[in-house]
Amino acid sequence: MRIGVLAAGAGVSTKAVRFYEQVGLLSAPPRTSAGYRDYPPRAADRLAFVRDAQAAGLTLGEIREVLRVRDEGQAPCEHVAVLIAEHLRAVEERIAELTRTRAELLRLAETAAATDPGTCTEDDICRILASQ
């Protein structure tokens, strides 16, 4: 299968296919006598996996490791479960951080609404952001 057909079928660009090849997520395919890449059908499944794993938040390095485990003939389920748990924990921490930031921004918005710029002095950089 030529690179354009593979890329279109996987919903990625030909540049992405070459990049995935370069970083070791996709094996370099054999070449035709004319020098074109000739990807096997399983390359489409591998690209679909890479796309799905990225959508789940895995890094290219993590995806490479999952593929390595699979390529060695082992089921990567346990490894993937650990990665998912780590990413979920990080997302939950980020949500908590964003919740705190939102609360602070709401407080600052109230302060801004109640602040009369005419009462600011030259010594004030910004009374809205200054510690209360």
Automatic annotation (TrEMBL):
Residues 1-69 form the HTH merR-type domain. InterPro entries: DNA-bd_dom_put_sf, MerR-type_HTH_dom, MerR_fam, Tscrpt_reg_MerR_DNA-bd. It holds the Pfam family MerR-DNA-bind. The keyword Transcription applies. CDD domains: HTH_HMRTR. GO terms for molecular function: DNA binding; DNA-binding transcription factor activity. The keyword Transcription regulation applies. This is MerR family transcriptional regulator. It comes from Streptomyces rubellomurinus (strain ATCC 31215).
